[in-house]
Specification:
Order of helices and strands: HHHHHH
Bound molecules: zinc ion
Shape: rod-shaped
Low-confidence stretches: none
Strand content: under 5%
Structural class: mainly alpha
Largest sheet: none
Number of strands: 0
Radius of gyration: 43 Å
Mean pLDDT: 84
Helix content: over 70%
């Protein structure tokens, strides 16, 4: 983050309008850049005093200390959010791993689906039964036709 970028979001930082990655870069810059840090302190004192006057509150004695605490709180929040982020990622990873193991074991352990053997089905039996019944007249007809042919 450049000084210009950092200074352009000072107001957003004071109003708690930055997202987690912006906050991270912003704090990092403020800790390494005395000029921007000074700028932040001035803006913080100015904006906070204006807000306090607006809300009829007493003015703070030490804006510098307040800002320090705000930055510390922000750092704690970043660590907490990052921790949650990685913890969630870890849980997600474990779920995926578990599912992968489960499905490979499932395929490995479950018996293969039984193949329907047509020769043992009722359909086949019925067909054989019908064949027997219809073969008979056909056979008789053949015999008859053979007999007729023999007479000719
Ligand atoms: Zn800077």
């Amino acid at each position: 983050m450049t000084c210009t970028e950092a200074q352009s979001i000072i107001t957003a930082f004071i109003n708690d309008e930055l997202n987690i990655s912006e906050l991270e870069e912003f704090i990092l810059h403020m800790e390494s850049c005395p000029e921007c840090r000074e700028e932040l302190e001035v803006y913080y004192a100015l904006l906070t005093a204006m807000k306090q006057l607006d809300e009829d509150k007493n003015l703070s004695d030490d804006y510098s200390q307040e800002l320090k605490e705000k930055i510390e709180h922000t750092q704690e929040r970043i660590i907490h959010l990052r921790y949650n982020y990685y913890r969630k990622k870890g849980v997600l990873f474990l779920i995926i791993l578990f599912m992968a193991v489960f499905f490979s074991l499932y395929h490995y352990l479950m018996p293969e689906e039984e193949v329907n053997n047509v020769t043992e089905s009722r359909f086949r039996l019925r067909t054989s039964f019908m064949e027997d019944r219809f073969d008979k007249p056909a056979k008789e007809l053949n015999d008859y036709l053979e007999k007729q042919g023999g007479l000719d």
